[in-house]
Amino acid sequence: DGEITLYLIDYDTFKDALNYLTRYDKLSFTDCTTLSSMDKLNTQLILSFDSGFDKVTLLKLKKPVINLRYL
């Protein structure tokens, strides 16, 4: 309850973020590290007001990102 977990970007996450960067050219590298982390954490849920996440498919999970702001 009330706990926050901090995830650091490791080499593999950084490398996978580069794959997102080449695939989705409208996203920033920070956005791409978020997507890479979502793959690593096995989640497709995000809460963001950044429309860049709309219509993005996670590369490893092969599922679309679900932006909670629309729910």
Any overview of this molecule?
With 71 residues, the chain is mostly helical. Helix content is 37%, strand content 6%. The chain has helices at residues 11-23, 29-41; strands at residues 45-46, 66-67. The chain has a two-stranded parallel sheet. The longest helix has 13 residues, at 11-23. The chain starts with 10 loop residues before the first helix and ends with a strand.
Roughly what percent helix? 25-40%
- Estimate what percentage of residues fall within beta strands: 5-15%
Query: Which structural class fits the helix and strand makeup?
Result: mainly alpha
**Number of separate helices:** 2
Outline of this structure?
This protein has helices at residues 11-23, 29-41; strands at residues 45-46, 66-67. It has 71 residues and is mostly helical.
Main features:
single chain, 71 residues, mainly alpha, two-stranded parallel ribbon, 2 helices
What is the topological layout?
Layout: H1 11-23, H2 29-41, E1 45-46, E2 66-67
Parallel strand pairs: 1-2
